[in-house]
Amino acid sequence: MGGGMGSSSADPGKRQGFTFNKTFGQHILKNPLIVKTIVERAGIKPTDTVLEIGPGTGNLTQKLLEVSKKVVALEYDPRMIAELHKRFQGTELIHKLNIVQGDAIKLKFPYFDVCVANVPYQISSPLTFKLLSHRPIFRCAVLMFQREFAMRLVAQPGDPLFCRLSLNAQMLSKVQHMIKVSRNSFRPPPKVESSVVRIEPKNPPPPINFTEWDGLVRICFSRKNKTIGGIFRNKHVLQLLQKNYDVYCSLNNVEEKKSDVKCLVEESLEESKLKEKRSSKLSQDDFLQLLESFNSKGLHFS
Asked: Can you name the residues that pair with 185 across neighbouring β-strands?
């Protein structure tokens, strides 16, 4: 959905010859009440630097400039950048605005305290985790997503939408669903409904190796309704763990145990007491316990 939260008064979509780019997922937010709510929920301070991804024609940008010290507006489309320049050039807010052209996934983010974004569906997941890996840790992000993606972010164990995305996002942050947004709040209307989500990174971050954590979670959610025991007895999973075990022993000068990886897996599953459970029903603490059980036997993930 991204491509901005522009105002109806400054909306170039009303002018003849301006075509929104579907490749960029451009849908201009035209509902001023939603804009107001987003700014309020972001809790911006007068000393804050705000990173806005997908400013579009600048309606939200203007509200952010009014309450913050500085706004860094990251926009891919040069036509939208031209609209921003037209809107703010010659105003008292222009000195607080820094417009950067580029791809939000490829560019290195500057320092910021708060992030606000209207996120295109195709980059929703990579953008979320790029933000959560950003250092120094920012205070919060208020993001507009397609409804289904937003509900997966906040889903709890047992919810049909609970998945690897839910678990990883909630491991690294506090995630809250703020408001639902009708497709009619945009011009042109997208095909689906949207939601605004607030993400607050955990500070300090959890003391885990996230690459290894995600390696475990990826395997568990490859068949999330199968038992944990069934998943880890799979031939391909055992081959992967054997390869990782060999590398671990080699790098750490550890003598490989005579028992094979299959036996170590069984011991880990028994120790965790989770082998009859299903990934779709496990809590964050359950997954941490499972990872600890595997690690204690020298089994690692990547």
From this structure: none
Alpha-carbon torsion 105, 109, 113, 118, what sign? Answer: negative
User: CA–CA distance from 111 to each of 32, 62, 94, 115, 156 (Å)?
Assistant: 28, 20, 19, 10, 32
| Residue from 219, 212, 252 nearest 233 by CA | 219
Q: Do you know the residue count of the chain?
A: 302
Write the single-letter amino acid at 224.
Answer: K
Place of tokens 């999330």: 224
pLDDT of residue 21: 59
Enumerate residue ranges in the chain where pLDDT < 50: 6-17
Q: How far apart are CA 248 and CA 254, in angstroms?
A: 8
> Is the overall model pTM greater than 0.85, yes or no?
yes
Measured distance CA(145)–CA(161) in Å, rounded: 15
